[in-house]
Amino acid sequence: MKSSFFLFLVILLIACDPTTKSDRGPAADDAKGVLVSPKELSEIRKLAAEGVEPHQTNVTEFLKFIDTLMAASASWEELSGEVVVVGRSSQNPVQISSSGGKLAYGTALAWHLTGDPKYARKSRSVILDLTDTYGYRNAEEESFHWGAQGILNLSRGGTPYIYAADLLEGWEGWSAEDRLSYQVWLRDVMYPKVAWASRFRKNNWGVAGSFSAALIAWYLMDHPDWRLEELSPVELSLSPKEAFDAHNQYQIHRMKTTEEWKMDAKVDIWGILPHGGIPEEIRRGDDPIDGDHLPTDGSGTHYTMTHIEHLTAHAEFLRRLGDTSIYDNVEEDGSGSLLQAYLFVIENPIKSHCFTSARRNALYLAYDYYKHPALLRSLRECGPSNIQGQRMALYGRLTHPLDLSSDNH
Fold it and tell me: What integer best gives the mean pLDDT of the chain?
């Protein structure tokens, strides 16, 4: 009797586990994911169930956050048709704010961590809600223009939806028709806008745009005959592979300090300087753009952290495809280094700063690659991040866990 009951429990667990081959298909076990894979999530789920830290605490806190966000989303205004961004706000509409991206991606993660299909259904629903939208102009303008707030909101808030769609692959509720509908929307509505930011903007808008455009192109690779149309700053028609390669290169070029990669920089120096400063972000505050440290914890410091957070997400995505070029990039004079940008903030010999609690999620991803002691030390001294993250390096504490109390790092 006991053995029969045990067999029943095993069968029940397999049936509820979203990472089994029966649900996800034969290729799913090999999926690397955008920022985390189904295989990694399965291991996190197992360790959390066994009470292993920090997984148990992370998963418990994460599910509480997602359940609260799901409940709050019930009152969100419906998104359909022409989207008009009110007040040039990064929080409008909520579906492509940081909250919308966290909901889409978070519910896909929660499905893998629990096996409860309510999470997968929610993720699918919010993804497909995007597919009849268009426009994304500013409310005070009669027509869309390049530079509209909606471009940034799509680049940052819309990109985690692709993380989510990738994690829904193999679930019987995510059909080929669903995927195609979403892909067409990405191609026709989102891509031209984020590609503009990638090609034109030097600051965090451009970082988000290059990552978003490259990720869209990657997600459309199963349609090699499709053309991705860019309308500005120049008209281009690219295959998904051509677009993928181009926008990855634009991200690396954005890190450069040379004249040909000034792009739309508003100051006389740009890129990631040899000491790690990012003038295009520092200018947003009161600190000197060419200073050897950040004297205040103001806007320039926070925009610097945002730039780094976006760039880390792109670096981690490419790393999972076997390409560490963003993580490793350093020019001959020491400029263009993502690691040095971190150190300029968190281990500056004159004055250092803690990343904000949300942006601190990016440090988990960066430490997983660099293993640099300053990143670990910053997390220990500043404290663990919140569970959700900021914009693009979402849920890093959950997906790239660190036991900050352990000496085994």
Answer: 93
